[in-house]
Amino acid sequence: MWNFNVDNIGMRLQFLLFFFMLSLGIDAQKRLIEVANPMVGTGGHGHTFPGAIFPHGMVQLSPDTRTDGWDACSGYYAEDTAILGFSHTHLSGTGVSDLSDILIMPHPDRVVGNTLKEVRSQFRTGFKKGLERARPGYYAVLLDNGVLAELTATKYVGMHRYNFLLGVKEASIIVDLGFRDVVLDASMSVSERTRLVGHRNSKSWAKDERIYFVMESNLPFDLTWVKNEKDSLSAILRYSFKDTREIILKVGISYVNTAGAINNLKVDCPNWEFDDVRKSTENAWDKELGVIEVKGGDETMRSNFYTSMYHLKTVPNLFSDADGRYRGMDANLHLDRGEDTYSVFSLWDTYRSANPLYHLIDKKRSKSFIETFVKHYEQGGLLPVWELVGNETDCMIGYHSVSVIADALDKGIQRNQSEKLLEAMQKSANQKRFGIENYVENGFVGSEKASESVSRTLEYAYDDWCIGKYASKLNKQDIAREYFMRAKNYQNLYDPTTGFFRAKYNNSFVKPFDPKEVNQHYTEANAWQYSLAVPHDVEGLIQLHGSVANLERHLDTLFNTQVQTTGREQADITGLIGQYAHGNEPSHHMAYFYHILGKPTKTQRILDSIVHTFYKNQPDGLIGNEDCGQMSAWYIWATLGLYPFCPGEGKYLVTRPFFESSRIHLENGKYIDIRCENSQWKGENEIFLNGKNLMGRGYITYEEIKDGAQILIKPSNSVQKMQSMVSEFANRVVDFVPVPFIQDGSSSFANGKKIEFGVARPDSKVYYSVDNGKFSLYKKAVYLKNSAKVRAFAMDAQGKISDTIESFFRKIENKWKLDMPKIYANHYAASGPNALIDGEMGGLDFRTGAWQGTWGKDIEFSLKIPRTKTDSEIRLRCLQDQNSWILVPEWVEVMVSEDGKKYVSLGKEFHKFAKDHLTSVIQTYEWNLPKNSKYIKFFVKNPGPMPKDHIGAGGDSWIFMDEITIGE
To answer: What is the CA radius of gyration of the chain?
Structure first.
């Protein structure tokens, strides 16, 4: 190990070290790249990376410090003190890991090893946090071995500069294509002693990533292959120093082929002067960050603001080459010389704030995003959900491309593709997967049809409203009416008794219910955090709650109730104010509901808390995942005093800014000036637009500001109060009636079944039928004696009717009695104590409600049955989904008795699947059941902790069971 000693470093290194240690303090005269801090979000659970990137560039050249665990999603974690290498692609703020392609790492000596593991351990190098520097477009670190590593990037090229100590005579650099992901195929070859070309085809979150590269060196090298393990491919470049101890590498990448990488390097970075390239990239960042100018606020706020702008402009990333070629969703090569093609669309996150901000300040690039959506549809059959390097991951829920498209059209973007986009939007909204078919047919997603059924229903409804808005602007009124009707479907899951949107199983609200419980019915959230997920129809939500006052009370309770959640642990739920969770996206619009109700001071009080508490100028300065610009976009909007409450609506709520003044530069050369007379004021404000008092109106429209505007916010000295804006956020479909629900929808019964109905709106009546009989008006409970199908619809006072629900009830003919201890989780209770004998068979998705889950415990239970008359078989079904911490039992033992006293073991049946089995599987444990068996005991052995290579290594595992059967 080299000891760091300034006296041993040449003049150039001394100068660089001086630059390196410059104060990071902020003042108004500094360039914006010195105000933004890429280190923010690299700690906590922000999941950002600190390395070099050109705005929206294809290359994200950054250090990698770890490969395992949730906080390795970006490859770098602020608490780590050793670097594994510098790779060329990284994700910003996601909750899933991938990329880290083409790892390079220098070492000031000859490295020799028999295995790749030995070689990697020698390249792994420590560093001190005080000797690390990052700013937009540039990263540098002085490693413990004395190597000064500097990184910068252009659109397509990562540039490395490594300076070595004076006494170093030779050096090694590893080029590791086997790093992190599963390598499907890889190649490297030396075309000359200063050039290396290759490719990597890998599998991780993206199932088929193909990346190509060319690396050019300022000094010649000799190549030695590393003894590879499995399918990885790595090489060591050996350098002998003569006149200089500075190595400069230029690495061009492409997702097309090596020729594309070579051309990208040639066109984008012909310069060998590292400092010139860095300055060019820093200038590009200064321009991007300067699109919005802010004045006032303290140093931390200004840093947070421009750090947020920086994070916003790191994604999406270029995916097409300099010549316009790109790899399509069909894996084939395509050419588009007119528009750049992009990748990394985290749309469940970004449709809320990030994309609306792009639509205001970056229309040109936004148009390219929309064009990319069209390409996805043409080549893959659907609009993107969560696209990553040419792969659709289908991560998260909804079809939120439609929100981005509708909001873009509202801002005048992409009008020439309108018909094609409407076709694509309808295709995404009518898929026969993810519960969408059930949603279209029945008006909501049943929990037995798809997991996260409440969140899906609510977000599908909002997306449908976006399609309706889009169709209406194209004067396609029949299509608009269809989707505006569908946009009311959120009402079908409203429970008037509790005031929450709740999951339904067999058309009955799932019990027990705790609004604080995080479970499989909501996406990374609980019922509180989805209770206001209706930005497109605040008026309709108020009607469900009964009055504006009732909804305000709901909001008061939301923000002031206890902060603890129950149920499943969910790392995304952070930044709690009551049950509001700023660390995850479903909560981001909630504080603004007060503003819409005409109570702006309540909104402002919460915004003050969020802005000053959850955003800090330090590595753990983000309260949750940065999520590809969304967390930062929220901050930008909030501190400017504007907010796109309902993307696609074309309105911005106006709140008190956090800066004295700001200027938003528009691409048409105009600008929006926002001035605040008192950015600390806690009371009501008056809003002036171009000198005119809006007289209590708390919003402005895009049309009012698209050609520039002057906005003034000043403390109110009059009795004029902000008006309610409820009517501005309404989906007025007069024909919609919510479906009825069944009070107890448990699908199996032994002696008889009582059927009672309820309605979401008190003005409705219920009509029902049994086994396809005539519909009758519901007046009192209906009793079933045998298995039956029950259908029902609601009719309002004007004679309009709802969709028809259909439920099935099955009489259990056996006389079994199950004694199951209550050790299973409430949120994985299935049908309750009799879940294992109710006849409901679970599928491969544990979240649909038929599986009963127990965490970290052995299970013992007993079953009493009528005495068997012949030999038969007894079976128990168990699920394994190791991605969700669910493993089949280590073993299950069954003991039987004729009299309930003397038991005989039928033996232990062991698991058939390894703990690291990648896909969901069902194992049926089977035993021969002898004649005259009456009493049966089950002993289910927990499989123990998750294996060492699992993301949750060492953590307790779950057992999921769903049915006992007896037969031949």
So the answer is: 31
User: 801 has which bridge partners?
Assistant: 795
Query: What is the tally of structural domains in the chain?
Result: 4
DSSP 696-757: T--EEEHHHHTT-EEEEEEE--SS--PPP-GGGS----TT--PPPEES---SEESS-EEE-E
Distance CA 502, CA 486 (A): 18
* Cα→Cα distances 422→372, 438, 896, Å: 15, 22, 63
Res. 229: pLDDT tops 90 = no
Query: Which residue bears the tokens 């879940």?
Result: 835
Based on the domain organization, do 37 and 117 belong to the same domain?
Answer: yes
Same domain, 802 and 923: no
H or E segment to which residue 303 belongs:
helix 299-312
Residue 833 pLDDT grade (very low, low, confident, very high; cuts 50, 70, 90): confident
The secondary structure of residue 641, as a DSSP letter, is T
* CATH number of the domain encompassing residue 845: 2.60.120.260
- Taking only the tens place, the pLDDT of each residue in 896-940 is 999 999 999 999 999 998 888 878 899 999 999 999 999 999 999
**Which pLDDT band holds residue 720 (cuts at 50, 70, 90)?**
low
The letter for the amino acid at 913 is: F
**Phi and psi of 346, rounded to 5°?**
-95, 70
For every residue of 649-704, DSSP letters joined together read: S-EEEE---SSSEEEEE-TTS-EEEEEES-TT--S-EEEEETTEE-TT--EEEHHH
In a domain, 673, yes or no: no
The residues near 584 (Cβ < 8 Å, ≥ 6 apart) are: 524, 525, 529, 572, 573, 574, 624, 625
> Residues 355, 636: contact at Cβ < 8 Å?
no
- What DSSP letter does each residue of 142-211 carry, written as one string? EETTS-EEEEEE-SSEEEEEEE--TT--EEEEEEESSSSSEEEEEEEEEEETTEEEEEEEEESSSSSEEE
Confidence band (pLDDT; 50, 70, 90) for 29? Answer: low
Q: Is residue 12 very low, low, confident or very high in pLDDT (cuts 50, 70, 90)?
A: very low
Distance between first and last Cα of the chain: 70
Helix pair 418-428, 453-473: axis angle to 10 deg: 160
Query: What is the length of the chain?
Result: 968
Q: Tens of pLDDT along 239-263?
A: 999 889 999 999 999 999 999 999 9
Question: What is the rounded distance in angstroms from the CA atom of residue 464 to the CA atom of residue 400?
Answer: 10
Domain for residue 728, yes or no?
Answer: no
Cβ contacts of 919 within 8 Å, gap of 6 or more: none
Rounded distance, CA 605 to CA 607, Å? 6
Residue 28: what pLDDT? Answer: 43
What pLDDT does residue 68 have?
87
Q: Which of 74, 58, 50, 72 has its CA nearest to residue 139?
A: 50
Q: Are strands 333-335 and 325-327 parallel, antiparallel or unpaired?
A: antiparallel
Q: Which helix (H) or strand (E) segment is 613 a member of?
A: helix 600-613
* 767 and 621 part of one domain: no
- Assign residue 628 the CATH number of its domain: 1.20.1610.10
* pLDDT, position 33: 98
The mean predicted confidence, pLDDT, of the chain is 93
In a domain, 692, yes or no: no
Three-class DSSP category at 454: helix
Structure tokens, 490: 């959120």
- Using an 8 Å Cβ cutoff, are 151 and 158 in contact? yes
pLDDT at 7: 36
Task: Give the pLDDT of residue 749.
Answer: 86
pLDDT mean over 723-743: 92
Contacts of 295 (CB under 8 A, 6+ apart): 28, 659, 660, 661, 662
Residue 769 DSSP class: E
